[in-house]
Amino acid sequence: MATATTPETPRPPEPQYRIRAHHTASTITVHQAYPPSIGLPAARDGRFPGTWKRDRMTWIKPSFLWMMYRCGWGLKEGQETVLAVEITREGFEWALRHACLSHYDPGVHADQASWRRELKRSPARVQWDPELDVRLQALPHRSLQLGLSGEAVRRYAEEWVVSVRDVTPLARRVHGLVREGELAAAHGLLPVETPYPADTDGELLRHLCP
Predict the structure, then answer these.
(1) Residues facing residue 145 across a β-bridge
(2) Can you count the helices (H) and strands (E) in the chain?
(3) N or C: which end of the chain has fewer CB within 10 A?
């Protein structure tokens, strides 16, 4: 007698706007890429060196693959050292609460003038770009990038950073596997990035989702 099988429950669709990251109960890992003159001392000392400019906006990316797209797997000039920067969730969430969208969106802002005022006074800004697969091809959902300036940059460098790791060898290894067509092996080396748990009710991103 044949045994009835139960069809698999279909997975719910991936939300278009959601933070996905490697995180612990108290930290979240973001990624940046710098020339060796900045990246190597940062990884060695666990903090950014004095040559790191705090008067500029700095962008942090929870998505490892989006960082790979941006820095060309650590092969672009000036971005040869890829860093995994572990920061406090408290600091990350402070930045999100004080952020605005990097672009005007009529679904979020009353008008362009109000968006410009918000942009001018906000120490952080959010940009949503397509998340990527291991071949760096766009997926239907979005990846968060967080730009820090002014007070947010100072807090990032002085208060939020818990550890800094040089993950350039990982970037090069994954890239090599992708070039060889070993996509499953490449994917298996990626950092585990799961939905960020602090935004279960949407409060953290409500003002940042178009």
Answers:
(1) 127
(2) 7, 9
(3) N
pLDDT at 197 over 50: yes
In order of 52, 143, 173, 179, the CA distances from 188 in angstroms are: 33, 20, 11, 15
The residue whose two tokens read 């790191």 is 52
What are the residue ranges spanned by the domains of the chain? Answer: 20-204
pLDDT, tens digit (0-9, with 9 covering 90-100), for 113-134: 888 888 889 999 999 999 999 9
Nearest 5 degrees, angle CA 171-CA 177-CA 78?
30
pLDDT at 29: 98
Strand, coil or helix: 18: coil
Q: Average model confidence (pLDDT) for the chain?
A: 91
pTM for the full model?
A: 0.90
Determine which helix (DSSP H) or strand (DSSP E) holds 113, and give its type and residue range. Answer: helix 112-121
E strand or H helix at 142 = strand 138-148
